[in-house]
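User: Structure with iron/sulfur cluster, tokens only please.
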Amino acid sequence: MNNKTFHLVSLGCAKNTVDSNSMAQLLQQDGYSTEEDPAKAEVLIVNTCGFIDPAREESYAVLRDLALEKGKNQLLIAAGCLTQRYGADVVKRIPGIDGVIGTRRWMDICQVVSQLRKEKSPQPLYHLPDAEVVGRSPQGIVGSHIQGSSAYLKIADGCRRPCAFCAIPMIKGTAVSRPIEKILQDAHYLQSQGIREINLIAQDTTDYGHDLGLNDGLASLLTELTKAVPDVDWIRILYAYPGYITDQLIEVMATHDQILPYIDIPLQHAAPEILRKMRRPANMDWVYQTVEKLRRAMPELALRTTFIVGYPGESEKAFATLLDFIKGVRFDRVGVFEFSFEPGTTSEALGDPIPAAVKSERKEHLMLAQQGISLEINQVLVGQRMDVLIEGQGTVAGSTEVISLGRTYRDAPEIDGMVIVEGELPEGELSQVRITGAMTYDLIGVPVTSPES
Ligand code: SF4
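Assistant:
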């Protein structure tokens, strides 16, 4: 097989999806085209995830399936975080891999493919140079991933925070920001493609520009973005690290209509002793004050966070503190993860003493408490008119009645809720909807057809 086609499987987070898209752009520039059917592609690439155990297992499973099905003239390349971290072990576990490229050097994909095509050897080719950090995106590549009329735009990669449970700094190295001009150029491209929503992503968006010598870099970037892409309706900030949400950032968010009153601050816990063990900011006064400032500046703010339960040393008392905290703050959205033991991280020495059953019970408990809060918050929205970004259509089960599915500003793609709207509304556009019903995570609405409706 020598048909210059590739089949790429992207696993893991939105940042990985952006890298996969960037690799695809590089290959296309090099004359390759995508092939949906893995059996027909010359090059098979899996952009793996190595963050926590279930994600690693999924990556191994996808690689294994492709390796088993692979024809003798096909090439299988393992890319991404798993290979950056475990290189030769991945090859040992999955015989049949021809090439290995780490996440720090995804931009070298064409060199790896071309070398493999030239000289296929029984030994896999390793492309894991001693780069300390993720390389910058090459020119000509748009660092984004488009889904309908929404896009993720990567502003930085890597992380310089010391969180004890996290393997990301080990995998990706310290934070590397993309130059502001490059981000604006990509945003321009997205605007020219009719994109309605840009979601800014990085491991830690609030750290944007630190390595470029910028002070309050995210606030400056947002200000520039609003000027550069006035036709993009929604700009959303994801992954803001606690402690770094400045007054200037809040002011920029509150004074620009394009920037959504939505923020995702992964707090991970609320008991200071656990936060200290996690090596995370443990000043809960800052959290309360910042939430208050954000809500004062943007009364319609949608606040999202995530927590880890079952971290080593999390006593019943510490868990109760967390439960009281979520009941007190009343977040709009909460994600809960069970602690996953990661060899090689700073928390390794603490082991994994909390039994799995206790972790899942705590997760359940937290989610149940949050479900009540989410429902109450959603019920307040009934009767309001909201802009909904329509993402698709469907039919009601058991009938031919058409419905549209979309999101309000309160819903980030893939992680938050949906709005189910009666009738067929234009896909990829913002439509005004009157909310008529509320569920725990989702809303129900009808299109606004006249100013009185
Ligand atoms: S902020 Fe902490 S949890 Fe997030 S990527 Fe960085 S080290 Fe990991």
